[in-house]
Amino acid sequence: MQLRNLQIPAGAVFAPMAGLTDAACRHLMADHGAAWTVSEMASAKALNFGDRKSLELLQDKHPHGLYAIQLFGAEPETLEKAILFVREKGVRFDMLDINMGCPAPKITGNGDGSALMRSPALAARIIEAAVRAVNIPVSVKFRLGWDADSINAVEFAKMAESSGAAFVTVHGRTRMQMYSGTADWDKIAEVVNAVRIPVIGNGDVFSGTDAAALAAKTGCAGIMAARGAQGNPFLFAEIRAALRGEDYVPPSACARLDAALRHISEYVAAHGDGAFADMRKHIAWYTKGMYGSTELRRRVNNCGSTAELSELVRRFRDEVSD
User: How far, in Å, CA of 80 to CA of 90, rounded?
Assistant: First the structure.
C-alpha cells in the first residue's frame, strides 16, 4: 500500500491500545513484522496544557519501522494546537491517527472517541484541522456507529475522505457493543466499496487465517491486529504468510518465552524497576496454553522485583526446553 511518499510493508498494523502499546511493546511487534505501529492515544486537551504524561505516550526516541501517533479530542483548534506542540517537542512520527472509535465511557462522556460518530459535522472539522497541521498522512479510526440503530460507518468514511483523510480504519463493532459479540465484516466491506481511499479492517483478527478471511471478505487494503497480538508478536509473521498464501511454522514455547524476556527487559529499562508489576498481564498472555503456566502465573503475581520476575520466566523456559 502506498500512502503519499510512504511505502507500507505487507502485513498487519499493530493497533493502539491504552496501557499496552508503549515503545517497548511497539518495538517488539515491529521487529516481528508489524507493517507499522501506533502509539497509545493521547488527549489533545492535555497536550495543550503541557501534560508530561500525555507527551510521554507519544515519544519514541528510537522508533522501529513506520510509526504513527494517535490523538483524541473534540475541539478542532485544540487538536491542531496539540499537533503543533508535539512537533515542537521533537516527537518523530510518520502518520497521524485521530481516534474516533474509543468506546470507553470516560472518553465518550466528554464527546471524544466514538461519541464523534454522532456529530459528523464536528468530526469533519477536526479532521480538516489535523490535515492543515501536518504534511503527512492523516487517518481516522472509528467504529460502525454508536449503536445498532445508528450505524453510519459508510457516511462517516465518506466524510473522512472528503475532509482529507488519507485512509481510515474501521472496527467492525458499534460503540455499545464495546468488545463483545462478533465483528461485522460485511459492514467493513460496505465501507471499502463506498470510498476511494484505503480502508484498514479491524476486529476479531487472532490468527493468519482470520486476517486472510477478513481481507477476502471485505477487500480491505490492510489489516489491524489488536488483542490477538497480546503476548504474541509472532502474529504479524503469521498474518503476512497467510496473506501471501505461504506456509507458516508457529514459534516454539522457548521462542515465545524469549520474546517475553526481551519485553520485560525493554519495558523496565524504559519505565524503571518499579514498573515490573505491569508485565504480569503480559506474562500471562505469553504463556497462555503452556503446560505449567498456571503455577508460573501464581508465582509471577507474588514476585517482588524485576530480577525475580525475569528469573521465574527464565527457569520456566529452561523447564520447557528440557
Answer: 16
Whether pLDDT at 26 is above 90: yes
Contact between residue 223 and residue 211 where contact means Cβ atoms under 8 Å apart = yes
Q: In the annotation, is 102 catalytic?
A: yes
Place of cell 486472510: 212
pTM: 0.94
Tell me which of 25, 102, 220, 303 is the catalytic residue. 102
Q: What does each C-alpha distance from 174 to 103, 109, 126 come to in angstroms?
A: 8, 16, 21
Which residues, 6 or more positions from 10, have their beta carbon under 8 angstroms from its beta carbon?
35, 240, 243, 244
Extended beta strands in 101-258, E state = 138-142, 167-171, 199-202, 222-225
pLDDT (tens digit per residue) in 255-299:
999 999 999 999 999 999 888 889 999 999 999 999 999 999 999
Residues in CB range of 170: below 8 A, 6 or more apart: 141, 142, 143, 144, 153, 157, 187, 188, 191, 199, 200, 201, 202
Residues 250/234, Cβ–Cβ less than 8 Å: yes
